[in-house]
Amino acid sequence: MITGSKLPHTGTTIFTVMSALANDLGAINLSQGFPDYDCDPQLVSLVNDAMKNGYNQYAPMAGWLPLREEIARKTEKLYGAVYHPDTEITITSGGTQAIFTAICAAIHPNDEVIVFEPAYDSYAPAIKLMGGTVKSLELEPPDYRIAWDMVKRLISNRTRMIILNSPHNPTATILSESDIEELAAIVKNRDILILSDEVYEHLVFDGQTHHSMARYPELRERSFIVGSFGKMFHTTGWKLGYCLAPAALTAEFRKLHQYTVFSVNTPMQVGVAEYLKNENVYNELAGFFQQKRDYFRDGLSQTRFRLLPCSGSYFQSVSYEHISDVKDTDYAIQITHEYGVASIPVSAFYSKGTDHKVLRFCFAKKQETLERAIERLIKL
């Protein structure tokens, strides 16, 4: 018998609920963020080759070295940042494990962590498990911009970390150069770490720049940066990610990593390492997803929804406040039942359930899937 739950207020996530509802009703599932199309057959072939060639035992705890070397090469080429494969790059079982491990490595009881909401739902539970305190700052539609004056008010002598996510899930916003300047000024001469969730780093649209923490030496030296091959290569089920951090932070990260997953599946690391040698496989992602974004936005513009900005990620949020006063959780369920399209209510990303009457759709889907979803939503 288990008593005294460490997460007494945590239940089944809305993602599980909405996907299950979509499955039960035969609805089009635009709720969870995963593609409904296959990854590149060449990548599958490379992983199969690795299996056939005997790469089926434990990889090194920090990850397959050639993969870490390719990540270092990619990061330097994109952001001008040099990370040492031996001491500053760790392969993880997906981005979420990297996030959890970084928080567990850095946060002690009574430490405070600033989180911008709406926020990916794994941040707060990890902080609470470590005895830390979540200091939330709510962002508002349509632009969800960070009010840095408010951030300054949240800073105290117990502030240990600021968590950032750009491109952002669920709002599809990205950090600007002015955001970076404000952040750098706030953390300067303070013992504050940054956890930068950059799993959608290659999904930035309209020629805009991804402002990775790796670009800025004064931020890089205090940052855990999280990446995801699942998001990069349409293989979310492979659960393969990585964490970049300075050597001292990586040493602490690996202390926990070795006792959680220890190492990540070997043949996929071997296959991805070879696949990454072709820079086009990630450089062409923005164009690939921008085509889907443009098609989906054009279709949704024919519905009653009001489109919110979408600068990155593979999510599109819409406002329905002019259509209905129903709570977003109820409205998401309602349109799944009545119109056969599942979404995620954005209040699920706020700790207080703040309801701005906004839904999030995932457009990482086949063209025909998006077309069928649009046809149904036009009837709303």
Automatic annotation (TrEMBL):
Record's SUPFAM superfamilies? PLP-dependent transferases
Highest taxon above the source species: Bacteria
Which Pfam families does this chain map to? Answer: Aminotran_1_2
Q: In this protein, which residues make up the domain named Aminotransferase class I/classII large?
A: 28-377
**Key words, A-Z:** Aminotransferase, Pyridoxal phosphate, Transferase
Database matches in InterPro entries:
Aminotransferase_I/II_large, Kynurenine-oxoglutarate_AT, PyrdxlP-dep_Trfase, PyrdxlP-dep_Trfase_major, PyrdxlP-dep_Trfase_small
The cofactor(s) it depends on are: pyridoxal 5'-phosphate
Keyword Phosphoprotein recorded: no
Q: Which GO terms describe its cellular component?
A: cytoplasm
UniProt entry tagged with the keyword Magnesium:
no
Give this protein's Gene Ontology molecular function annotations: kynurenine-oxoglutarate transaminase activity; pyridoxal phosphate binding
Instruction: Say which family it is in.
Output: Belongs to the class-I pyridoxal-phosphate-dependent aminotransferase family.
**What is the protein's name according to its record?**
Aminotransferase class I/II-fold pyridoxal phosphate-dependent enzyme
